[in-house]
Design goal:
FAD/NAD(P)-binding domain, binds flavin-adenine dinucleotide, 2 domains, 8-stranded mixed sheet, 393 residues
């Protein structure tokens, strides 16, 4: 039986980018994805590239590298990721103070323009300007998440990678070393295993006794077929509740709850947002819940009604568009930085998940990860080193 250099578990954006970068670097790589058409976090994402959002030297540099990679990715992968430079319109509710909120955005590497309601409507004609006190406008990148994953996967196969549709049901552990992965039909062996299983990564690692501070939300959205309306910008709230929710739900004192199905760690939130893709379809999101059972079912009709009500407030033309409600898992870490690196408790096992800003950060982190694995530099990667110490467990 062949022993691969690397097995990558999970074919969302994280696993697809990482497997491609590892194969490109010269490793023999097996990518295992559970489903031929996964309903994962990547599939239902807006695909926005918040490259403006770096706040530290680490995140500023990764964001800058990330947007540079995106700008050339279609040509590198020889397939169209549908990359475009767009504008992100962050709406501020009528009862909020625009100056205070604009001030909070001064921490980012690119700071937004503060727009009056009239100027915001000029940028986004579908906007109900009476619903807002002001808006912030930022440059933002955009790709089709599905096209990007497909492009990565095709380039991975061309680079000699092997992809199989199979569910990894366990990790093959021998003493203090992970030797491969177990699927219902086969054991695959590898020198290294990278877990990129999104919201299911925690449970998979737990099955071999490895604890990690990785969590997940159930995100709920409406997806429309191609529509005649034309949304010019990506619209989101200036005050996102999701990050506050993740900080509380991902705090150390809540950690034990995440191993017990049946809990809701904090109350659900709704951050209303909308994006239109190049084919005219739209995604309208998102309700986020912290249910500790990854298979928990939401009350579909209540969730859909709340999404429609909220989007209708800011973008009335979207309220009644025909569309399909869906949900997916989105992984997150306790400190908004991705969980990337190897575990000290066992050899050969790595985590690559929990990106809160994946489309901006992932391409660069995957490239650096592969280069570090290949040992192409004398020193450990100084940026990856900042992501590692003590954060995985
Ligand atoms: C509505 C919405 C909007 C978003 N907008 C943005 C945005 O604008 N910008 C941004 O950067 N991010 C955004 N995100 C977040 C982002 O899309 C996700 O965080 C990211 O795509 C996650 O990628 P991933 O590969 O880590 O996980 P996933 O895409 O969830 O992929 C994990 C994969 O692992 C597979 N898997 C799991 N367990 C196993 C197993 N045992 N065996 C085999 N395979 C397995 C799953 O089938 C799945 O395909 C958004 C998310 C949502 C829901």
């Amino acid at each position: 039986m062949k022993t691969f250099d690397w097995i990558v578990v999970g074919g969302g954006l994280a696993g697809s980018a990482l497997s491609y970068e590892l194969a490109r670097t010269g490793f023999s790589v097996l990518l295992l994805e559970d489903s031929p058409a996964p309903s994962n976090g990547t599939r239902y994402s807006y695909g926005g590239i918040a490259y403006w959002s770096g706040t530290t030297e680490l995140t500023k540099q990764l964001c800058q590298e990330g947007i540079e990679i995106h700008r050339h990715l279609s040509s590198e992968l020889e397939a169209d990721t549908q990359f475009r430079e767009m504008q992100l319109l962050l709406v501020i509710d009528r009862d909020r103070d625009p100056e205070t909120i604009a001030q909070q955005y001064q921490q980012f590497s690119v700071t937004p323009a503060l727009l009056t309601p009239e100027a915001a409507k000029a940028a986004e004609p579908l906007l109900n300007s009476e619903a807002i006190a002001a808006a912030l406008l930022l440059p933002h990148g955009h790709v089709s998440p599905e096209a990007t994953v497909k492009a990565y996967n095709q380039a991975f196969l061309r680079a000699g990678g092997v992809m199989q549709i199979a569910q990894v049901t366990g990790l093959a552990r021998m003493g203090d070393r992970i030797k491969g992965v177990i699927t219902p039909t086969q054991i695959y062996e590898a020198g290294n295993v990278a877990v990129c299983a999104g919201g299911l990564s925690r449970a998979l690692l737990k099955s071999v006794g490895i604890s990690t501070r990785l969590y997940f939300t159930q995100a709920e959205i409406i997806e429309t077929p191609p529509a005649e309306v034309q949304l010019q910008t990506i619209v989101m709230p200036a005050e996102l509740k999701r990050f506050e929710m993740e900080a509380i739900a991902g705090s150390a004192d809540q950690d034990a709850l995440w191993d017990q199905p049946g809990h809701e760690v904090v109350s659900p939130i709704l951050d209303i947002g909308a994006v239109q893709f190049q084919d005219g379809s739209l995604r309208i999101g998102q309700v986020s819940r912290t249910l500790t059972d990854p298979t928990a079912q939401a009350d579909t009709s209540t969730s859909e009604a709340s999404l429609r009500q909220a989007v209708g407030h800011f973008l009335p033309a979207l309220k009644q568009l025909p569309g399909q409600w869906s949900s997916c898992l989105v992984s997150f870490s306790g400190d908004r930085l991705p969980l990337v690196g190897h575990f000290a408790v066992a050899e050969g096992i790595h985590l690559f998940s929990g990106f809160s800003n994946p489309f901006a950060l992932l391409p660069s982190v995957a490239r650096r990860f592969a280069q570090a694995a290949a040992g192409t530099t004398d020193q450990p990667d100084p940026l990856l080193a900042q992501l590692l110490p003590d954060r995985l467990i």
